[in-house]
Amino acid sequence: MTHAVSLSAASATGTARRSWFGWFTLVFLVFSQVTAILISPPDRDMGDLQKIMYVHVPAAWMTMLAPLALLAFGVRYLFTHREEDDLLAAASGEVALVFAGLTLALGMIWGRPTWGVWWTWDPRLTSTLVLFLILAGYLSIRALIDDRDQRAQWSAAVGVLGAINVPIVYMSVRWWRTIHQIQSSPATVDPAYVIGLRLNAFAFLFVMIYFIRRRRDAFVLERAAEHAGEAAALGGLSRE
Amino acid sequence: MRARRRHWEGFRVNENWLFVGAAFGLTWVVLVGYFVRVHGAVRRAQALLDAAAVVPR
To answer: What is the ipTM of this complex?
Structure first.
């Protein structure tokens, strides 16, 4: 038996706050990308291709962060059975899938001019693809199961299992022989690129948070509409 | 026609910038596309909720 979700957080005040945060995120994202492109010099080996780092690396970080949110909300749902946690987990899973797809596509765009191929079965690429497929499976399970409690429990379990793949993706460049470089961080890139990378990392983090909260709002409203419809139907039955 | 071709003869598109443009362009297409999808879902759900609220009891 799940605890019913309340509409309080999707109220007018909450929506206004999300709208403000959304505008802030948009402005910050544009500022970060323009700044990163303008201030970073061409790389010695890659030239201007290095600038792809400012979208690919932050997207890859969100690809690993969003499934951890899915893991946290999924575990909390399994303990508390709060409907709110199930909806937050579902929102995190969907956003994670978007970032995983984006990361793979951006990696292909970067790989073609630098490696000479769009795709190779490298451990980092393959493990990211596996994560993408697990997330797609997570959303498929949610779409296939009608019973709310069963859907929440099964998908939470799949989400938790899927999140186990995140450390494998992260460590793949160290555990196996790979043509992908080791993990990018302010410690491993030239100081000339650190500011741009940091700015875009925060910009993508804000984008991820905004998307998860907004998608959760949509789920809450959908669920509330379902509850209202069921209540109306039950009211009609009791009068007959 | 020949004059126009001569005009562009020395012009070379920096291929690197094509890939950079593709990467940033794709990022914006995906992020804006997902925003539109989520925003649409919120609006549709709100409309459903409003419709459910006016069902006569």
So the answer is: 0.86
